[in-house]
Amino acid sequence: MHPPPVLRIADRVALLGGVARSTRLLDEGHSKHHLARAVEKGLLFRVQRNWVAVPGADPLLVAAARTGVVLSCVTAARRLKLWIAESPELPHVAYRGSGRVRGPAAVVHWQRPVVPRHPDALEDGVENVLMTVAACQPYERARTVWDSALNQRLIDVEVLRRLPWTGAARRLAHESSPWADSGLETIFIVRLRWLHLPVRLQIWIAGHRVDVLIGERLVVQIDGAHHVGAQRTSDIDHDAQLMLMGYHVIRVGYAQVMHQWEDVQERIMHAIAQGLHKA
């Protein structure tokens, strides 16, 4: 037995992410009458003239439909689970391309999308997210997001480099790589490039990957919150193996990289001055 039409239309909106354009529902064969009845029964509510949503729909998507924008930049990057150092204070959105942006405070991006936006979209795709991030964020923060997208295989590096980037995005497309497992590793690459030494990420040595290898023998391991218990024991054992093989190991944590970088850099500089990066 099929559910009644008003339930089918509400189920369809839920399947579309909880917010949908009325014109899309009509194009799919749902009637104006059943749409109005679903609203009357409280199965849907009108966000604005051409958008409806189910009760409990994602508030950010509802706000995007109501104000005529799409979620983008660091807001959309966090929703994609890309590496972001800090959550933005205000939502970051992009102009949809027609009409007037309405509604509460937000950071609005006006760049032309690198990939066309579908009229049904309320969130930018990864390519447009990277574009707005490149225009909005300082190079280092933007680079952590771009590297994260490549590392998570949300976009292929060759595809990335074929897209028609402009401005800061053109440099990021050329320099970003998929090898950083976290933004902390990207930060190492960016902040230590002035050394003019090879700084490589995720290199296999003694049966395990090391986070950063500077030169031929200086290993930097970056501890996250998961480096406890059995993981910590494994890390200590691997450090011992590395040192017996002639490597020098420096181990640092998130807070040191993000908030005490001068101390971390000083330690690395002194290790290099002593030639601990050489075979």
TrEMBL record:
Coiled coil region boundaries: none
Signal peptide: none
Matching SUPFAM superfamilies: Restriction endonuclease-like
Pfam families in the record: DUF559
Domain DUF559 residue range list: 199-272
Superkingdom: Bacteria
Official protein name in the record: DUF559 domain-containing protein
Species the sequence originates in: Microbacterium galbum
